[in-house]
Amino acid sequence: MSDPAKYETARADYLRSLAIQPGEALARWGTLGGAEQAAVVLQMSMFYDRPFANTFLSLARKGARAKVDVVVTNAPRPAHTPKSLKASGYALQPGNTTTQYWVHPSGSQVWLVPPPKAVPPTPAADAAADEGEDPADLIESAESLVETALRLFQQAGDIKRRKVSRNQDAKDYYRTRKIWWGDYDKWKRELADLRDDLDPAAMRRFSRPEFDRMQQALEQLNSAEKRPAADLLEPLEAVPPR
Fold first, then answer.
1. DSSP H helical segments within the chain, as ranges?
2. What is the pLDDT of residue 61?
3. What's the whole-number mean pLDDT along residues 75-95?
4. Once rounded to an integer, what is the mean pLDDT over residues 117-134?
5. How many CB atoms lie within 10 A of CB 203?
6. What average pLDDT does the segment 143-156 reach?
């Protein structure tokens, strides 16, 4: 493909399709670069959840072959009910279709086809399905957390520089670090809350531009989280200085 922009768009769409189809992702894993593999796992955690993506990554690193078995049923046995499938590590594939496509990190699939005379969902059920965080609010929260991380990094550097340049006494240095560590712990809690809100149902409400914007913010947050906080600023002493 001669147009770089078109190639990047097509490649991003391809990686997104792999994230939705873990069996295909396992089959193609060896053809992906390291950054592409990381992108697939990240998006998979957004479409499904982090334990699902972690199980997939463990299988991929072991070189596991994708399973291709598919069970199609309109009269599921106890082992094929949504509750049982979820307990067995399956997750509901994103998409607003009548048939439920349950996928396993290994590639196995179970398709639950509604009975011929299935009762249509009630308005109350439809309303419950539409409930949840608005994508714009989730994106705003994620980008706000990115800004907070950058501010924390800058503040940590400022605190260390003040200690050297102003010969800061131990009590004042402890006090400023205590405030910083409190803000950092709050940032970690808010990041965990955001990830809890980004369940598969929430991600299905995202448009493609919204998804791309959220992915960019999450990549920045993941990068910030990987940086050890103790490398940014000295941890607090067990006993405050007197």
1. 4-20, 22-28, 34-47, 50-61, 82-87, 123-130, 135-165, 170-197, 200-203, 208-226, 229-232
2. 94
3. 86
4. 52
5. 19
6. 89
Give the separation between CA 19 and CA 34, rounded to whole angstroms.
15
Instruction: Give φ, ψ of 229 to 5 degrees.
Output: -65, -35
Nearest to 179 by CA among 150, 149, 159: 159
pLDDT at res. 117:
54
CA distance 45 to 94: 12
Question: Which residue is it, tokens 């082992």?
Answer: 79
Of 16, 43, 46, the C-alpha closest to 194 is 46
**Prediction pTM value:** 0.51
Residues 6+ apart with CB under 8 A from 206: 135, 214
**70 within 8 A of 23, measured Cβ to Cβ:** no
